[in-house]
Amino acid sequence: MALQATSLLPSALSTSKEAKLSASLKDSSFFGVSFSDYVKADFASSSLKCKKECNSKRAIRAQTIAVATPGVTRSVSEQKKTLREGSVIITGASSGLGLATAKALAETGKWYVIMACRDFLKAERAAKSAGMSKENYTIMHLDLASLDSVRQFVDNFRRSGRPLDVLVCNAAVYQPTARQPSFTAEGFELSVGTNHLGHFLLSRLLLPDLNKSDYPSRRLIIVGSITGNTNTLAGNVPPKANLGDMRGLAGGLNGLNSSAMIDGGDFDGAKAYKDSKVCNMLTMQEFHRRYYEDTGITFASLYPGCIATTGLFREHIPLFRLLFPPFQRFITKGFVSEEDAGKRLAQVVSDPSLTKSGVYWSWNKASASFENQLSQEASDPEKARKIWEISEKLVGLA
Ligand SMILES: NC(=O)c1ccc[n+]([C@@H]2O[C@H](COP(=O)([O-])OP(=O)(O)OC[C@H]3O[C@@H](n4cnc5c(N)ncnc54)[C@H](OP(=O)(O)O)[C@@H]3O)[C@@H](O)[C@H]2O)c1
Question: What is the catalytic activity of this protein (predicted)?
């Protein structure tokens, strides 16, 4: 496939929002590091079963309609509790952002990291070569492209007896050059099946565990992306994310009697990834609307910046992989290193000043975190509700 000129367009933050939010910019210096990357670019090619799940000490109440605007800060008493070592699950911690985040957290000595990975050996080698100390992490098998594996992971994690303080849904697949869809074990198109449905089941099943935790600030973080946001330049590079009326998702994304695409259209691997990221960001907000008030759990998403060197682009054509990092580094200046992106995500996991729920975090040119604005579709409460309801049927929760 030829490298398209459009695929190298710089992306940009919603500038109006950036201006509006300048007042709320925070000094995001983390672990003594001051970041200096731009956040304006991403790669650019392209009545609920809650009660059953929630047998924990606090009741988690399901609501069928949106009740709160995302973005509420719970402060005070949380800070007063004694801080023990935190326990965080990070999916896809065998490379890229997930590995860098695992390393950043483990290095503090304040976090025990459960690396939830599909390839045990790869994860073990990655942790070793990152210099992570064995006492700060463990690896548990999780294949998000299999709902059985997700359920098995949850069972195994519970058997470990560890508390769950923070869950980071980070893993993703991106198939920009695929001509035909591929599918998960249950027959869902792979990108949406892995990035959204696998994480949806995982986070729904682990919500009671998070709710049981006595850690001062419990968080559920789902990694988003600028590419799913059509209020940015990057989000406007074709093919654009668009969930449409979600007829494909409702049909099971199986490519047989329904389309493999959420909107019911023809398969496009790059679009499937972007659509999956919209689902991630909408799911975070729906969690916030349904559970924040009753649980105090912080629900957040983020765009970590353009980490042009990660394995996410492994299926892209070689020329793209060669030119993309220098293009982002020198032309758009949107490049962020894996290490710095990991520190950003680690901030969202652990920084006491980032406890606001319902927020999509980004970082400005001075690498200060700020609450970014999602596109109309990625913040549509009706779509979020519909995705939630369809998804819980698909993963067997309803
Ligand atoms: N790179 C960027 O510029 C960028 C920008 C915005 C957002 N993001 C987001 O950042 C997150 C991490 O991406 P990355 O750039 O760090 O890419 P990456 O290095 O390819 O990491 C993706 C991780 O997901 C894992 N994974 C894939 N399929 C899985 C499955 N079925 N079950 C369990 N794990 C699976 C991979 O495991 P294996 O090691 O076994 O393949 C890998 O560890 C993604 O959510 C992505 O959307 C990235």
Answer: chlorophyllide a + NADP(+) = protochlorophyllide a + NADPH + H(+)
| Local structure of 166: helix, strand or coil | strand
Question: Does 14 sit in the ligand 1 pocket, CB within 6 Å?
Answer: no
Mutate to test the pocket of ligand 1, among 312, 324, 363 (most ligand atoms within 8 A of CB): 312
For 257-283, write each residue's pLDDT tens digit. 889 999 999 999 999 999 999 999 999
Nearest to 397 by CA among 184, 206, 192, 163: 206
Residue 44 in contact with ligand 1 by CB distance below 6 A: no
Which atom of ligand 1 lies at the shortest distance from residue 307's CA? 3
Task: Quick: pLDDT tens for 83-126.
Answer: 899 999 999 999 999 999 999 999 999 999 999 999 999 999 99
The verdict on pTM exceeding 0.90 is no
Count the helices and strands in the chain (H runs, E runs).
13, 8
Exposure of 138 in the CB half-sphere (CA atoms within 13 A): 12
